């Protein structure tokens, strides 16, 4: 007789590049998003939650940054209409959906439209260590105004947000640059032709890595890199390279000095002068609002995003040092970026609408707070009421209800208590602050035992055997004092 | 010369069956989810956010309810491996992912594992009015215990949750039934064979609609329905139908009476007796915790979900009346449901793991609070500082910064003020409580004008022309009093 072929069991795994988040990972992120939303709200921004699924047509074919692959979305075709259904896709960022939302609802939305949004986005990219295909974005944008006051406001809001979530003043810096200044510099250098322009932009992007001397070589004839390979240069003359280098190194001690250097770097370029004037306007507005250079600075060495944005560009960096995987100290680095982009909805309506905004890397920011010890990885578990006598479950659950009613996190142990140790092992696994025990003897005497598990763990780690046997982490209290005494232990554990 | 063919513009629309959520829709839901999470946390439940994307293999081929189509997910194939990539899909509920998570992480998770989760799910179904293909679910489940204390706890938690979000005691009722009792009744009625069984289950499902007499006819020979069509019956004898009808109508004035009626209905069935004992245990536990029949009742007429769950079944109904679209009063109805299901992870591990849980319909619950007037549809907008002189933008933004620093929601008007009316129209659209005006004259005199827009709207609606012209809704105050006077207006508007 032929054997019946067994259906193979499905694998219990997330798809490659996806992960689950547990306990404190979820609640700490939720708490951070709530804090950020509070600041955004105070700044007059309104919440938006657009659908996670968009038509591929509305998303456009390309991801916004030149760095990213041209494909990279999760997409599928609607089954309807005999294979002629719309192609749908998961959003890959919050900006493309904002463009669609603004174009769709523009008659109902106020102008300017300040909106914030927070939620997951999806990228169909090759996953890697720490690189996931679903992650959170938290964006704020102002649509429909070309006023630099909108850009300055975004920078001020970003500073307030970082402080609100727990990054101390002095531990972050928001740096501001402007694409128009760069364009002016390119004009002053007499660089035209898209190919040369792109090559110069790519070289500028390497400033952080290779420094002034390296960029000078790469803008000229080329450079021998650290590995010994020769990298061809862009082929600019030293005279052409000079404004570019002046731009990259124009940061002075104060905004006035930086702006004067930039004015020199853009030479006769009208476009460049416009960019410098924009930076001046932002600096003036921020000064009037009390945001000094300890929080927000004009910094022409900010190059990230310069290829994508069309005016001011912002970047928030955390300036404290952490240890990397190899034990070397390095600056924590960027946690947010943004800038001004024109033509937000032009694809849809034919009409150019200016916009400016910021995107916060929520998971990076959480990692920073962990690195600074501002939030702990482990959340405190519930008080566990052990079950000594299964027939008296109702009594135990009544104790649990009493504790909960008093606002304490509590639960009865609902596992199968083969022996007394099981519920205590469980309480350990949950990082419970306390366990409550009421056996037949305690019941008869009108008392309960309370084990202080935090103190117990400390004693276990430090105490001698004798001290351990005295067991001061367990107390016997009258049943009527249950809630009050448990509260003392829980509150002591929180402090 | 041939004309250059223009690329057609993309349509600015969500895909069919999807929608966007704006302002208060987003923040009110977030606030509700936060409140619910607070209750769940207090009960010892831990947060989980599983990935939105699962392998089709892990989700399984079928949606959980028999009512739903067998297909119905948004799925696509990974591009890798020459067309042999995994099929991935968006989760259609939170239970299938819980099974995968528990199977994947069972060695690291505590047992029992109490978890809650909240977020969007996606259904590839035909959209209709009020029926969307992306919506929120908010679930809590206890995995790994067969104790009825877990089921009772879920019911108590649901009651606490409804009260925490603003449903008053007396405005809701949680009803509890048990699948095993039904199975016992079918056994007592001598019904076997899957086809007959399924037909009886379908008939029971119609109890709410056709009542006892209707079910009696449908269990027997059949019934002429309201439209005049004859519906064939299941063909049971009156003796066979009797236990089913006794089951459906067994609800008494108190739990004891109901349970006695059920004991009679299940006759000699051991399975039925087990179900009645489970209901008895739940009733006893809830009584000990102080959850009386004004909040949670044993009610055998709960039939929804009986086909899917394997033990206790819960349903939360809001009992107050609302007007439907046609102006008729009806009970608001169900906002949450759940129950006990075995074999949660058996598909993955071969091992049966019992679980019990609840799912809250967050959007239904929000609709209920709107219907009761507990939350208002319009959120208050920011205080708007108007821009009278564009060269003095820094002054205006400094005022805004002062208001924000004082915790007031505020913004400068950043639109293009062609005339004075524009920023006030904007403030109206934002439902702003106040507008601040400082022209050259006010600046010279060291004062500002504050328009109370809430009072202004009231006056505009009620006042005579003369009263309107006196314009008491606008006050002039010293610049130094700006924050204090604006705060008064904002706080008056909130009360």
What is the CATH topology descriptor of the domain at 17-143 and 342-379 in chain A? BirA Bifunctional Protein, domain 2
Average predicted local confidence, pLDDT of chain A: 89
Strand order in the sheet with the most strands of chain A: 2-6-7-14-13-12-8-11
Helix content estimate of chain A: 40-55%
How many β-strand runs of chain A? 19
Q: In DSSP terms, counting alpha (H) and pi (I) runs of 4 or more, how many helices of chain A?
A: 19
Q: Structural class, judged by helices and strands of chain A?
A: alpha+beta
Cα(first) to Cα(last) distance of chain A is 70 Å
Task: Give the percentage of residues in beta strands of chain A.
Answer: 15-25%
CATH superfamily of the domain at 17-143 and 342-379 in chain A: Bira Bifunctional Protein, Domain 2
**Name of the top-level CATH class of the domain at 17-143 and 342-379 in chain A:** Alpha Beta
Describe the structure.
2 copies of one chain form a homodimer. Chain A is 41% helix and 21% strand. By secondary structure, the first copy, chain A, is an alpha+beta fold. Among the domains of chain A are: 165 residues, 2-Layer Sandwich (BirA Bifunctional Protein, domain 2), CATH 3.30.930.10; 112 residues, Anticodon-binding domain (Rossmann fold), CATH 3.40.50.800. In chain A, the strands form 4 sheets. Chain A has an 8-stranded mixed sheet with strand order 2-6-7-14-13-12-8-11. Chain A has a 5-stranded mixed sheet with strand order 16-15-17-18-19, with helices on both faces. In chain A, helix 5 packs across helix 11 and helix 9 runs antiparallel to helix 10. Chain A is elongated and about 95 Å long. About 2% of the residues of chain A have low confidence. Chains A and B meet through strand 1, helix 1, strand 2, strand 3 and helix 4 of A and strand 1, helix 1, strand 2, strand 3 and helix 4 of B.
